[in-house]
TrEMBL record:
Organism: Lolium multiflorum
EC number: 3.1.3.16
GO molecular function: cation binding; protein serine/threonine phosphatase activity
Protein name per its UniProtKB record: protein-serine/threonine phosphatase
InterPro entries on file: PP2C_BS, PPM-type-like_dom_sf
Gene3D superfamilies tied to this protein: PPM-type phosphatase domain
Amino acid sequence: MLRWLARPAERCLGRSACGCGGGGSGDGGGGDGLLWHAELKPHASGEYSIAVAQANERLEDQGQVVTSPAVTFVGVYDGHGGPEASRFLSSRLFPHLHNS
């Protein structure tokens, strides 16, 4: 998995809980640094897995995964015009929804 998705998942779930450690090959392989996946992980509603493919080296997109027994929140923010808007949403949208 790419670090843009791993970092938020690690913050929310912990490195071992989400299987989001490692570089380009991660737990599930990939090898070229732009492809990554995590094997199936248990969740209250079943199982989940994460797969990521990045088109270029410059990171503009952001994403986050937050799970709990009651809800799963997945945010994917497209930064095709630059990273500022996607970073803003990644850092503020879920906390805003959570506190509402």
